[in-house]
Amino acid sequence: MAKILARTAADNFCVMPYNLRVFALLGLWGDRRKLYRLYVLLVIAFAVIIFPKPVRISDRHPFESIVRSVAELIFAALCYLTIIILAIKSEPFRQVILKLEEALALFRDRNDQCSELIVQVNARIHRFSLSYAKIHLLYVLLFNLAPPVYNYPHYFLQSRLPTANRTVEFLLPLMQDLYGLDVRHNIAHYTIFWVSIIPLCVFLTLILWYKGSLFMLVRYNTLLYQLVNQLLRQFEFEAADLELGKKHNRLQRIVKLHYTAIECTKLLDNILSLILLIQFVGCLLLLCLLLFYITRNHNLNVINIGVLFSSILIEMMCFSYLGNQLTEENAAISNSAFNCHWYEEPIVIRKYFQRIILQSHRKATITAGKFYNVNIVTFAQLIKTSYTYYMIMKEMF
Question: What is its main location (predicted)?
Fold first, then answer.
């Protein structure tokens, strides 16, 4: 594991190097023959976590518990659908990584501001990825340890009381039944349930971490636009001392890099469009249901619901912030080009600048199902709409 997570100097110009090494273990990258491991885990998770979920109101499952069960079902469905869509979009996913690595490799042997920018951004992405993994590790610990830490001591204290006075009902990590087992009152059945879901919760956490690689790719795409801006600023300061042939070569490389960045954005939008549409709709429903449950319950179950709430909120914040940054960096290219006083250059040079400006005016953005752009504004609208639905639900029930 230390070898997989280790970072070398060669990784400075690679795309998600250690992430891809972890994905290769799961069959999500590289040798596709290992993909059977993922399918086996998905089937087991479906049988243990998704299929047994209660979805009807009864004396055993009051309305609040059904709300929680549906929220957990939506959360699991988002994980499943993301993996399925990424399996379908495996070729665009591979293409965007290869294009990004080819673009970054152009700066590998250079010692200038662009290469320094790549090293800095790649180091930040690496630190973010580790922090994101640590947060999800904390989620797993909170999600799986908080209920038993409360349940086992409470059960043994209650076991000393007369049978008629015992009122033990276990707090569950997940709101569900398990094929006839009495997981709410029988300590042995509860233990079987708890032990069986721990590895599957870890697996779902790995899927969430894998989803995090998608907004890391958005950040790498943004880096290409930043490199275009940096190259244009260098051209602005050095243009007076450059011959026409050197200007021609430099601008040719800048146009090519800008075109690569735009191609990567199109590929990412192709990969993410359906995922983000499902994610936004699911997030809207999930936030509404979780808010409703949290305000109706004041026990340790709130910790587990809080973990789901925090996870989905952070995920959408990352997509929205990075989508907004991507759009702004591409728009900034137009200003960088104008600052080069391109209109004073010969016609052959002006054509390059006109192409760059026209490309930067075509809005580079990540969309949710082609319906709306993913940025800070749409994220704020999502939160506002979720809260509105929660207030309606609160008044109705």
Answer: membrane
